[in-house]
Model the fold of this input.
Amino acid sequence: MRLTINNLSYSYKQTIALSNVSFTLSNGDFMVIVGPNGSGKSTLLKCLDRILKYKQGLIQLDGEDIKQISPRTLSRKMAYVPQKDEYTMPNSVFDTVMLGRKPYIEWGITAQDIQIVTELLQRFDLSSLAMRDINTLSGGQKQRVYLARALAQQPDILLLDEPTANLDLFHQSEILENLATLANEGLIIIVTMHDINLALQYCNKAIMLSNGSLFASGGKEIFTKDNIDDLFGTTVKIVNHDNQTYILPQRKNNIRS
Ligand code: ADP
Ligand code: MG
Done:
């Protein structure tokens, strides 16, 4: 599977949210999108999943324009995990994950659908919560339900919007370990996140967005002090330890120290 984005642009009524974004990914790629608040990260994911109907640019899956692919077929290839604080209708955990089977269901739910959902509930430690209303779950539990629902679609490409926001350290690592396993299985993973240090441990590709434009793109090498300071208006220090790069924000003045 090859995902190609060419000169993608998107505007809300007043705001240009994305302009001329291009990149290419293939099987097993784990890409992180970083950038300040409002730089277009969520808009990019929503254009990819066709939640937003972009008018400029081309998105292709193995050379085929995604606008030519039916929504049902597209949702067997690409799945989106929203930010966990987005509003949800009351629904049980089991039924929420079963919604991910919708692109496959012909006349009714089959034994195979039930088996896939049951296995995903087990994999994400959700079996004991199967009958609970999703709105009564903690942030971390909800996040796992959304991930399970997305995987029920058996996609080739997984899009996740800030999957680690507000999670404790254990659950942050757990989500990223799961995503790394999926990338090893050949999925393309695209994730937005603010914790660059965590992202650096897992991604092999990255893009930086600034005001809707591509500020930098490539591999981990784009996380230079200059790029990060320019992108976020910070003063960071880069530390290398055990073959791993760490980005440490620095205090700007020492007046009180
Ligand atoms: P990020 O996810 O990087 O924080 P977004 O993609 O959410 O950024 O937003 C990009 C820009 O588009 C921002 O200027 C934001 O205010 C604007 N925007 C986002 N959603 C909407 C919307 N539904 N209507 C109008 N403007 C929006
Ligand atoms: Mg966002």
About this structure: Residues 7 and 244 are 33 Å apart (CA to CA).
